[in-house]
Amino acid sequence: MPYTVQGQELETDDLGYLIEADYSDEVVEVIAAAEGLSLTERHWEVIRYMRDEYREHGQTPNFRHMLKGVNAFWPEADSKALYELFPMGPAKQAAKVAGLPQPFGKGGY
């Protein structure tokens, strides 16, 4: 399921994750639309967090670490709030929408 962004086809794995990270906002919009998500500012905050974590650690956080990290800028966030944003699984779906490769194992570090 490759995504086409600005006329360029991006390579994905079997689950629709990009093979190589792409940090453009256009990629986020295309993948979010494919996932059936209408992005809000909260989505973008989580996406920026996931991208920062990937840049810093070379992988994305698992759900527990994600929740802890998100609480730094969204203190009232809980599991339910993250599942409302990313109903297919916050750690994995947020990574996909952020234009990042598939998380390792059960969802990163």
UniProtKB/TrEMBL annotation:
- Provide the alphabetized UniProt keywords: Cytoplasm
Q: Where is the signal peptide?
A: none
Which GO terms fall under molecular function for this chain's record?
A: sulfur carrier activity
Top-level taxonomic group: Bacteria
InterPro entries found in the cross-reference section: DsrC-like_C, DsrC-like_dom_sf, DsrC-like_N, DsrC/TusE
Give one Pfam family: DsrC
Stated family: Belongs to the DsrC/TusE family.
- Which species expresses this protein natively? Ideonella aquatica
The entry's cellular-component GO terms read:
cytoplasm
**Which subcellular locations apply to this protein?**
Cytoplasm
Task: Tell me where it mainly resides.
Answer: cytoplasm
Keyword Cytoplasm on entry: yes
**Statement: the UniProt record of this protein carries the keyword Cytoplasm:** yes
For this entry, the protein name equals TusE/DsrC/DsvC family sulfur relay protein
GO BP field: tRNA wobble position uridine thiolation
